[in-house]
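Lecture 7 notes: from sequence to structure.
We start with the chain below.
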Amino acid sequence: MTITATLEDVPPSPLYEMATRLRRFMEPVWDDWLAAGPWRRGPTPSAGACGRTSLFVHDALRREGYDAVWSNGVPRLSETSQIGDFGFLVHGRWESHAWVTCQGWIVDITADQFGAPPVIVTPATDPRYAANDLDTADPDAILRRQATAASLTAAWLETQPGLRLVRDLLRPHAFPPPKILELIATGVVRSHTVN
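Predicted structure tokens for the same chain:
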């Protein structure tokens, strides 16, 4: 398959940079998941982790103000039960996969499990992707995926100084929080009164 790119197909650099930072954040997490459970093995550490990783990417992008949607495609329920051309297209075969669609772009940090680059930000029309948004996971697995994404998002926020400041402002406690007082004292943030 040949994919032709135009200037309009070049991803916005802030989105690509964010995807790259999210990938770097996830790499040691995947290593931990591999060490904890021998059931999930693949050609790369991201193999088999696209669902919960993409849900985390979705949550992180939304916290940054992006209009992000978790997407997935499931081409078959079994080798003999075909649904259709959905998921990620690899060497002429559709594979189950999850990614994020964000403001006309696909953001995917786990396609390297199929031999693709480790970070993909490509137009939503990329023919390698087809969503049917059929989540075949059992309800307990969906809840575990959501809990994992929530804990990853919390850990991610702890690594982002600017996001920690926003989180502190939104946390229900006496205002101003101690960190804000420290920033005001050092001149990083100016104090003002709101009438």
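Points to note: The beta strands are 68-73, 76-78, 81-82, 87-90, 93-95, 97-102, 105-108, 120-123, 129-130. The longest strand covers residues 68-73.
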